[in-house]
Structures are given as structure tokens and as C-alpha cells.
Amino acid sequence: MMSRDGRLECGERGDAMKDVEQKIAVAANDDCSIADSGDSPPLVVVYDMRGSEVVFRTIRYYDKSLIEAVADCKMVIGKSFGDGIKADLASRGIETRLTTVESSDEAVGQVFDIKRGDGKVEMKIQH
Q1: Average pLDDT value for the chain
Q2: CA 32, 34, 40, 43: dihedral to nearest 10 degrees?
Q3: What is the CATH code for 2-126?
Q4: Rg (CA), the chain
């Protein structure tokens, strides 16, 4: 859910993680801004979703392959994707979705039609 101040909300990590239905990645420059290219962003922000509710948010840094970093995701959201990366992701069953917004939270909110509410997403950083 979205908070009144524009941040996504999630519940307690322990029980909520049992119910995660899908993971959505956003090609990002940092923990909140979307990278101009989804081909090799500095990191990805992964949202664990239950329906249209965000239950957890993780920042993933990767060394070699964006494909490996998002292998467990259903979708990658970005401002642009080259044909090669789109084909590689599609061959693994990962959908690409374009956005024009600047914030990763806002992009996920748009895709899932999440409205603003109260709270903040708990975040974990993976290297």
C-alpha cells in the first residue's frame, strides 16, 4: 500500500513473506530513482508482492548479470530496454514494462494501481 507521504507500506516481514505471490524488479540508480536504461542499471529494487500489496522491498547489487539478479522476478520495470535484454528476459519468462516516472515506488504503484495510504516499506540490501 502507499502511504500518505508517498512511500509504499508493508507488513511484518516474517509472516508476510510466506504469502509472497510474485517479485517485481525495478532497474534503478539507487534505492529510489529509476535508471535511464534497463540494460545494465547499477542495481535493482525488488518488490515482494501479495496481490497489489508490497510486503517487502530489497535492493540488489549484482556483479555480472542483470539476468541472474532478477531470475526470481516476474517483471522488470525500466525507462528503456534494448532488444537483447528484452529477449533474454522474455526467454526466462520475465516481462519487461516501460515507465516514464522517476521513482521506483511510483512505478510499482502505477503498474499495480496502488493508492496512497500510511507507512513505509521495510528495506533489505543484498550484495
Answers
A1: 82
A2: 10
A3: 3.30.420.130
A4: 13
How far apart are the C-alpha atoms of 119 and 24, rounded to whole Å? 20
State the average pLDDT over residues 43-49: 95
Distances (CA, A) of 46 to 34, 72, 83, 98: 12, 10, 22, 16
Beta carbons within 8 Å of 75's beta carbon, 6+ residues apart? 22, 24, 25, 94, 95, 96, 97, 111
Nearest CA to 26 out of 14, 12, 13, 8 is that of 8
Among 86, 21, 98, residue whose Cα is nearest residue 53 = 21
pLDDT 10s digits, 49-73: 988 888 899 999 998 899 999 999 9
